[in-house]
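Fold this sequence, please.
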Amino acid sequence: MIDLAIARAGLLDETTFEHLRAAVPIERQFKSDRFHRQEDRYTSVVAFSLLQYLWQERVGIPLPEVVLGTFGKPQFQGPCGWHFNWSHDDSVCACALAPMPIGVDVQSRIPFDEGLFEQIAAQGERRYRDRFFREDDLSPLWTRKESVVKRTGLGLTTPLRNVDTLATADIATFSYEMKDVHLSISAEGLSEQTLLSRLRIRDVRPNPGSAGWRATPGEQCLRYLAMRSS
């Protein structure tokens, strides 16, 4: 099973945020405190809190220490049989927990720009230019690429033009219930259909005045996009 939790940090009030902040490791508290914008402080804490939520729900033992890999990808310290990845954009946060390397990316609308498209699009992806132009949004393509490079742990050391996300079958892309927000998830070794069949989505909302989350089935908040058949 692959678990995916999605939350909107903008729904937090100050008291609930302080409860969530107090429940994350001190290093994450310090990281959050260094941000000047409230939005960034909130999303930094919420992303980690979602990992805590998924870990407790799925595994139940104390969460392993989270460290940074060679290219800056957050990962668990030492082998534990589990992998995670998180992402946030504006107030939308997402975190995935899986038994295989996983990458997730969430992104609000990126207006179509010919230069940016030429810079990031692989050869096989260029035949979909008209789709992105009509929708005036490159975020579906961007999230697909980001989910792959985050899964591999190489990050942006991999030129995005070298990642042809329409030639591989291990990525699923969705639109979020909020307008112009897209999310992609990539799981190592799984086809898109297998990934979809194993994906358990949780749309979570904060419990006011506590460090907890209440979940609803998330399939209603995400709409699957069949990118490769467009």
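The chain has one domain: 2-225. The mean pLDDT is 92.
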